[in-house]
Amino acid sequence: MGRTTVFVRKFQLEDPFSVVLEILLGISVKATVLREILTLDLGFSENSFYTYFGSSAGTDDAAAVVQTYDGGYAVCGVSNAAITTISGKSPIIQYNALNDFLVIKMNATGSVDWFTFLGSSGNDQCLALSATDDGGVIVGGTAQFSIAVLNNKTPIQSFNGGSNDFLVTKLSSTGTVDWYTFLGSNSGLESLGSVKQTTDGGYLIGGNTFNPITSLGNTTPINPHSGAGNNDWLILKLNRSGLLQWFTLIGSVGAQESVNSLSSTPEGGFIVFGDTTAGITSVAGITPIISYQGSNDNLTGKFDSSGKLIWITFLGGPGSEQNTSGGTTQDGGAIVAGYATGATTSLNGKFPLVGYGGGGGGWCIVVKLTSSGSVDWFTFLGNSSGTDVLCNSASQTGDNGFILSGNAQQVTSIQGILPTIPGVSGAINNLLAAKLNSSGSLQWYSLFGNSNGNTNGKGLSLSSDGGFILTGQALTNSGITNLDGQSPIISNSGGGTNEFLVVKIKRTGHL
């Protein structure tokens, strides 16, 4: 059975949990909200497609994708060359120089509604985006230099200097700039990892900074930086208009911490997902639930709505683990996904459902946490033949299972399961989508790539029809000409450089 969409008034909720809402029909219902959109099974079919975006003269790398309030999709990334038209549409703001943000809005069937560039005279990268409750999108990334004017708007906070600042831009439903702001220190290097709208209509920004920030405007940090030369988490809360409300820093001496994603919790707080190269014995008065194990570990922390740390935990073994995404779950816990190059034999006294199999390649590691930060279960996905299986996005699905995306080399089976859509022989990397049930067992996986191509998954979003929208970068001369019996809406340009690849799949893993 398919699904249709009922749009929710006044609420923007990034993660699945049950609330009582007034919907546009004017009635009060209890329903499950999945990524800003309420879905009801009413017998309509699911949609599927795939498409490329890019220029044959440049390199275009996608970073994130999200379903928008109108049922369409938005994707963002970076481009280093002008694109004058896409499907007959001209950009709202023209390409400026070097690397610019590239933001593209599609309708529900994958056709382009609008696109725009955002950038300074330097190197700028869009690294994250989220749908907003007014039908627009919020996009975030890094900027190398100041931008004096965008769409006749001036920045709320000017560029601070240093090597990079966060650049956060609110776009309307038609792609015009509502506001933009710079966030960072005047001497450091900042890198943004995630941006999300909160239940009060404001925004959470997560990333990392290399140098201490003692104040932003008149605001001082809730928790200070660990010291010069260390890369700390930098988390900021903005109101709906883009004004800073608070910020905090989390890190340890001699370590390099990074924020890769964050996700709202049912009670109004949030969970941050990242990784670190050294241990933290205590931060903001909190002792980690699981201690640091060595090399590179996943690092996950839960905060209340005011930015106060509630708990923090390391997830890893003696090898190297890197977390690249996570999401909150309906029970108030979290799903954490990344990759590992060594075995983790136990976490919190729990043993893996499927253990790390070695073989010389990286394995996807998935950990389910409770609301208090303890481990429910964890598992590995991989292949002992030495091929990599890497995860970089994770979300809970409507059936309480989990969807993962990332990239994998040619994998003929995982845990004895054959791929729903097999990769193509000779592919360097394939975009990976994998579905787990609520207990962590693999149900299906699909691979999207082409011979001699390098296709890397970069982002994932749930879709209101029960399926999933994926994005990544595709390095190829010819592109994928047929995928599960379908042709692309827009073909690869054939320029031999990276292009955005967007794939909308059904809940079964097929197109």
What is the gist of this entry?
The chain has strands spanning about 5, 15-20, 30-35, 35-40, 50-55, 60-65, 75-80, 100-105, 110-120, 125-130, 135-145, 165-170, 175-185, 190-195, 205-210, 230-240, 245-250, 260-265, 270-275, 295-305, 310-315, 320-330, 335-340, 365-370, 375-380, 390-395, 400-410, 430-435, 440-450, 455-460, 470-475, 500-505. With about 500 residues, it is mostly beta strands.
Structure description:
By secondary structure, this protein is mainly β. It is 0% helix and 44% strand. The protein has strands at residues 4-7, 17-22, 28-34, 37-40, 49-53, 60-67, 73-79, 100-106, 112-118, 125-131, 137-143, 165-171, 177-183, 190-197, 203-209, 232-238, 244-250, 258-264, 270-276, 297-303, 309-315, 321-328, 334-340, 363-369, 375-381, 389-396, 402-408, 430-436, 442-448, 454-462, 468-475, 498-505. The chain starts with a strand and ends in a 6-residue tail after the last strand. 55% of the residues are buried. Mean pLDDT is 87; it is low at 1-44.
Keywords:
511 residues, mainly beta, 4-stranded antiparallel sheet, 44% strand, disordered N terminus
Strand content: 35-45%
Category from helices, strands and their pairing: mainly beta
Strand order of the largest sheet: 1-4-3-2
Tell me about the biggest sheet?
A: 4 strands, antiparallel
Q: Please state the average pLDDT score.
A: 87
* SS element count, helices: 0
Q: In angstroms, what is the radius of gyration? A: 21 Å
Summarize the amount of helix as a percent range. under 10%
Note the overall shape.
globular
Pick out the low-confidence regions. Answer: 1-44
Distance, first to last CA:
16 Å
**Number of E strands:** 32
